[in-house]
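RECORD TYPE: inverse folding
INPUT: structure tokens
STRUCTURE:
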């Protein structure tokens, strides 16, 4: 018996060491960043120079977009229209009379499969159209504010099953209030539209649930190599919410600001690149596969993200594990796909896993495309100090502190939105 245990232990140590040798260590020191060259933003695959917005839109943008779609996030394999909307709650005098609260279910159907998306909407009280922030939440709509009327997964508390109750207790009503400056947002004249991202595709390595299954052909149980992972599915969901917002009379749908934190920041950038209807896009601490330059390999690397979250990207992206230099794109190009619409990249000083400098550099390196349109990119050579925001058409700040969303971040996003939406 003892011999067997010892043998098992030796085998375990052998493989553990072998694996540890293979995985390259995490870079946490700027001096260890490998030398790299970014792929050319303005030169097409056939070597033509992009000199005008029209060259960009006709020639270069489509090839970059197609590369991201097929090799990185994955292509959406079809279309599906909104099947129905059910209003679950309407309160014209929520948040002590400051806001309208509306909760709706969006229904999607294909064959015998369906998907329900429960949305929570707050708008400034009154009957004026408002610009809105649109953002996924991580822990359920009820986590964003203590308002006891917020439904849990579209249901009242008494309607929850014991399993749902357990899940609800874990996440907690109002448990994430600090990340959602709701009163500040409403006070500034903006609405907030939010939904739990798990409602579109549960965040686990399992393609049998969420929206993917609605598109499967008979016998299929996972997306193809160039087809959508979860990030792309979440981006799809944002566009479907946009379809609905276009029909909402009190929403100024020309002024929808997409916001996302971390994995949802990656999602916001990809959704903004796909869908021109989003007026402003904000990436908060999005890091690897979001705003950070992959070739720097600082903090989280492509191989880390594909190993720890194998379902986020298209299978094709896994070819680039420990092989970033083979990518024909880097993440500055993702930001450039959003041009000329305002885009904001925010980092946090203690968030080395997300590579703040890499996020800044990507925002800066996207600037030549904004400048083609006569818009203000980032010119400064050095990264700005903490808490010194820059608000051009590309915005950037490095907030002091950890990976999070804080009041400071919201203060900047509101100022940025005011600058772009209120001045015209
Ligand atoms: C992990 C992951 C990141 C991601 C983050 C999040 O840290 O490695 O890529 O951004 O989770 O979404 O919270």
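DESIGNED SEQUENCE:
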């Amino acid at each position: 018996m003892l011999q067997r245990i010892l043998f098992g232990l030796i085998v375990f140590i052998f493989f553990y060491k072998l694996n540890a040798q293979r995985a390259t260590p995490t870079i946490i020191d700027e001096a260890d960043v490998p030398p790299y060259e970014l792929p050319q933003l303005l030169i097409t695959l056939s070597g033509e120079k992009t000199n005008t917005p029209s060259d960009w839109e006709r020639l270069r943008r489509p090839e970059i977009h197609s590369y991201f779609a097929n090799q990185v996030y994955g292509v959406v394999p079809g279309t599906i229209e909104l099947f129905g909307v059910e209003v679950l709650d309407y309160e014209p005098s929520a948040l002590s009379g400051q806001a309208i609260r509306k909760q709706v279910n969006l229904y999607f159907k294909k064959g015998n499969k369906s998907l329900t998306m429960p949305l929570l909407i707050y708008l400034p009280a009154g009957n004026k159209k408002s610009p809105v922030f649109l953002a996924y939440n991580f822990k359920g709509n009820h986590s964003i504010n203590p308002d006891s009327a917020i439904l849990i997964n579209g249901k009242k508390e008494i309607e929850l099953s014991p399993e749902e109750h357990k899940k609800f207790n874990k996440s907690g009503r109002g448990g994430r209030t600090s990340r959602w400056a709701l009163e500040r947002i409403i006070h500034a004249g903006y609405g907030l539209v939010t939904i739990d991202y798990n409602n579109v595709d549960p965040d686990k390595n399992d393609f049998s649930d969420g929206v993917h299954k609605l598109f499967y052909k008979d016998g299929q149980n996972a997306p193809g190599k160039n087809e959508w992972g979860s990030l792309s599915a979440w981006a799809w969901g944002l566009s479907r919410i946009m379809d609905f917002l276009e029909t909402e009379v009190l929403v100024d749908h020309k002024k929808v600001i997409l916001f996302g934190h971390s994995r949802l920041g990656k999602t916001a950038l990809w959704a903004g690149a796909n869908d021109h209807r989003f007026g402003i896009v904000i990436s908060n601490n999005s890091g690897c596969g979001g705003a950070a330059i992959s070739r720097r390999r600082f903090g989280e690397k492509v191989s880390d993200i594909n190993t720890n979250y194998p379902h986020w990207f298209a299978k094709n992206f896994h070819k680039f594990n420990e092989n970033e230099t083979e990518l024909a794109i880097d993440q500055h190009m993702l930001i450039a796909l959003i041009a000329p619409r305002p885009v904001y990249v925010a980092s946090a000083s203690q968030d080395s896993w997300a590579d703040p400098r890499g996020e800044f550099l990507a925002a800066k390196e996207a600037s030549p495309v904004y400048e083609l349109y006569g818009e203000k990119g980032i010119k400064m050579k050095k990264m700005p100090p903490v808490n010194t925001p820059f608000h051009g058409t590309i915005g950037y700040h490095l907030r002091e502190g950890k990976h999070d969303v804080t009041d400071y971040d919201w203060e900047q996003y509101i100022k940025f939105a005011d600058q772009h939406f209120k001045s015209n």
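NOTES: The pocket of alpha-D-glucopyranuronic acid is lined by residues 262-263, 287-288, 300, 305, 308, 353 (CB under 6 Å).
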